[in-house]
Amino acid sequence: MRYLMLVVSAPDEPDDGPAPDIEEWVAKHDASGARILGDRVRPQEDAVGVRVRKGEVLVTDGPFAETKEQVFGFDVIEAADLDEAVAIAAGHPMAYHGALELRPFWAEEGA
Amino acid sequence: MRSAAGRSPRAVTPPGVPSGPGDKAHPGERPTSASDVGTAVTEAFRAEWGRVLAAVARSTGDLDLAEECAQEAFATALRTWARDGVPQRPGAWLTTTARNHALDRLRRRRVEGAKVATAARLAERVDGVPGTDGTGVAGPDPVGAAVADALDEWPDAEGDEDLLRLVFACCHPALPLEGRVALTLRSLTGMTTAQVARAFLVPETTMAQRLTRAKRRIRSTGITFRVPPPELLRERVSAVLAVLYVLFTEGYDAWAEPAQHVAGCAERRALADDAVRCARLVARLLPDEPEARGLLALLLLQHARRDARLAAPPAAAPPAAATVPVSEPVLLEEQDRTLWRGDEIAEGLRVLDDALAERRPGPYQVQAAIAALHSSAPSAGETDWAEIVGLYDVLVTMTPSPVVLLNRAVAVAMLRGPDAGLEALGVVADAPELAAYHLLPATRADLLRRAGRPLEAATELRRALALVDREGDRRLLARRLAEVGAEPAEAPRGAS
Asked: How many angstroms separate the CA atoms of B452 and B419, rounded?
């Protein structure tokens, strides 16, 4: 199973103390092949919206919907199943300071 | 009614099996009549449904397919057992047959070209399990020599492992709680969707959606049928136990409802029995988890009081002729302890001792220890309230929920008097979790009454009556309000 792991803020929740090291987390899961790809992204104020309406390309500044939760980054995770993906996510420092959201890729089995 | 207690009001019977009396068919004996076979299949259904389902679910990763094939296996049993006799090990026979049905279906899917990759991959996985020969397309009747041969090598322990994997999948915290509870119940007992719907007092279509949604999420989020990795095990065992506790509570609450005035009460009460059965199973499957035994002990001890939890109210005036007084809930301190079931209490105490001996305490063991102190006391007055308050203090450090604090305040009142209880209750006075919980004002009313403050007690009783959503408690509160000398806001005394 492949998962998009969104790294988001959790502004209303308390921090959970010392967290694991991000460099170690990246190195570990790059080495095992579980982390396919990942990066940090710039904050909401640098977001650019793009849509096509009546054949015209409309570019807007800012996100489509203002949310309290900020997306800080993402990783693409390859895991045998949900529990393995959860275990990988639970080792990420932002699981302690913010939250991680696992989004399964569409598979051929669908749902 | 209390007399309706002992037996489950619903018979769980596999489809197509005639229910009715019949002599027990002994394993290995050739049955002589259709009713013998029916009885044998029904017994196998009760004892083996979960394991058969779990085995197919694990090897295919598809709970829907597993349900269909398990049902089909029981239907096949009905046909072939009449012809060939009841097998020595019905569970192993059914499991192997269900797997063969699964393999057959997956191969057919592959041949039809539908969902090619998935079917092929799943068929490969099924091929790798005992009981299938892995060659060619299965014949129209998969029951035959292959099944008989495979039976000898089929270990029973394997069935338990699969069952545990199924329980972890059904109780996965990534599923909605309602779906977890319903799916666990259905998977472990083989109850139909209609039966589960009746037990939870929801329309069948609602329950069908709830189950379908949970099963779809198992597939779409990548939940597999396995024991979670060690770093997640502790939380996931808690998740399983929480589901069983919710299941039990559904039934437990119904035991304090006047059954003749509450629709579906009998079905809901049976959930408590189901939950005890499931807790017993999970405690056996998780021998290294004292909390699993703690939960079983807690359920046994609480359920053992069921016959004493309702009684006719003390008649203030002689009831009109031919009027049967409606039962009301009886508080623990006022229950007739001779109605408690001694054998179940004894078992609960044994299971608890066994769990505590591991010296790895947890919230269920502590709650069971509190229940055990109640169960062991000859009367409310002779209860060791100091010990109970001490255990609540421990429980508060483990799970500082407002409900725990509320119950602690009740124990404090028994130990040090109503004023001390009211003071302890102050901690949760503004807890948002209890804002709609009728037992907060009801408890405060009880303490105020005992403290000799009837006017304030009446105010609290009215508040509780505005919140209560249970018929039994509503009647009790209305009578209490009448007793403290105030007029009930609405329901006049003696109605119904």
From this structure: 10
In whole angstroms, how far apart are CA B1 and each of A80, B235, B274, B304, B338?
Answer: 51, 39, 19, 16, 17
Which CATH number is A2-44+51-104 given?
A: 3.30.70.1060
State the total domains in chain B.
Answer: 5
Count CB pairs under 8 A between chains A and B: 43
Chain A positions contacting chain B at CB under 8 Å are 1, 3, 79-87, 90, 102, 104, 108-111
Q: Nearest to residue B95, comparing CAs of B145, B57, B138?
A: B57
Q: Are residues B170 and B205 in the same domain?
A: yes
The pair of structure tokens assigned to B448 is 């105020």
Decide: helix, strand or coil at residue A75. Answer: strand
Q: Which of A82, A87, A110 sits opposite B222 (nearest CB)?
A: A82
Q: Looking at this predicted complex, what is its ipTM? A: 0.89
Taking CB atoms and an 8 Å cutoff, what residues of chain A touch B216? Answer: 111
| pTM of model > 0.90 | no
Same domain? For B254 and B292 the reply is no
Confidence of residue A16 (pLDDT cuts 50, 70, 90): confident
**Residue of chain B whose alpha carbon sits nearest to that of A107:** B220
